[in-house]
Amino acid sequence: MLSDSDQSKVRLPGTDRARDPAATSEMARRAARKVGITRVADITRLDTIGIPTYQAIRPTSRTLAVSQGKGVTPELAKLSATMEAVELWHAEQPMPAIATASPREVAGHLGYDVRDLPLSTPTVLHDGLPLDWVAGWSLVDGAETLVPRDAVAFTLARRQGWNPPVFFESTNGLASGNTLVEGILHALYEVIERDAVTASLTGGDRGVRVGPATLGSPVVDELCAMLARAGVALEVRSLPSATGVPCFLARITCEDYPPPFLGYGCHLSSEIALTRAITEAAQSRLGYVSGARDDLRPEVHKDPGPRRAPVPAADGEAIQEAPAHGSLVDDLEDVVKRAAVAFSHAPLVVDLTRDDIGVPVVRVVAPGSRVIPEVF
C-alpha cells in the first residue's frame, strides 16, 4: 500500500500532498475524460471574494452533475473539483458483492457491530436481515473484514426491487489522492470532521470562538484580507473533537448577500484545517451564487433574522498551531490511533481504485463515528 511518496510530503498552500500539483493535474486530466467530465469551470469571479473556486461538470452523473472544488490557488481549486467528481464516479459504479448474508451469519468475520455504522432513520436493520457485503480492512492492524455495500456505494439513481432503509447513505469518508495513503488520510479527516460537526449540532456545544489572525499564518491572513476587502464578515469557531484533531467552523455573512454560509475543516495542522474551513465557506456561497449545483436548498434564502455584528479577525481565543508530521504515513498512523480510541473501534477502509481510471479512491467507514443529514 505504501509508496515512496508517502514517506515524505509536498507542502502546498493550505494542504499537504504526496506529489506536486503538476503530477496530480496530469493524473486528474487523464481520469476526467474517462469518468465523463465535460468541462471544468472557473466560477471564482461570480462572487466578490476572490477565493479560487471551480466546478467540474459531469452530465451523466448518477449523483451530482456538478462537483465543486476550492483552494488557495486556482490550480489547487481546479484539482479539488476534478478529484471530487472522480471520487463520486467511483462510488456510483456497480460493486459486486463478495457475499450476501445476514449480520448474524458473518458476525465472526466482522470484528465490529454493524449497528455502530451510521443508520438511516428509520432503519429496518436486524441480525437476520440479508445484506450484500464488500471487502475491506482495518486501518489499525490490516485485518480483512466485510463492510455492507450500502455503507460504501452511493447513487441517487432509482433502484429496482425491494430496497429497505438500512444505512445512512452519503459520501462521508469518500476521498481520493495521489496515493492510497493520501486518499485514506483525507477520507479519515472527513469522517472525524463530520463526527465533530454532528456532535456540535446535536449536543449544542458550538465550540469556542477563535481569532484566525492569532495563528500567525500568512495563508490564513490573506484569506481573511480577501473577505474583509469584499465586505464579508468572518466568524471562526474551534469545534471539540473526541480525537483531538483540530476542527474549525467558518461562518461568513455580508450585507449584500445576507444568508450565512458555513465551511468546515479538519487536519493535524491547525493552519490547514482553518484554511479548509474558510475556503469551504466561500465555496458554499459561490455554489448558491452560480446556481448550478443539484443540491441547493431553497430555505437558504429565507430571512435569516437579525444580523450579527461583524467580528474582528483578531478577536477570540488564540489558535495554537498543531503541526503535522514530516510524512503522510506518519500523519495517517497518528490519526488512525486517535480515531480508534475516540470511536472505540478501528476505522475500516474499502479500496475503490480502478486500474482503468488510474486514481487511488477509497471509502473509510468508522464504526462508532457520527454523521447526520444536516451536515451535508
UniProtKB/TrEMBL annotation:
Gene3D superfamilies: 3.30.1330.230, 3.30.160.660, 3.30.40.250. The lineage of its organism: Bacteria, Bacillati, Actinomycetota, Actinomycetes, Streptosporangiales. This is YcaO-like family protein. Residues 69-376 form the YcaO domain. Transmembrane segments: none annotated. It comes from the Bacteria. Residues 1-26 are annotated as: Disordered. Residues 1-20 have a biased composition (Basic and acidic residues).
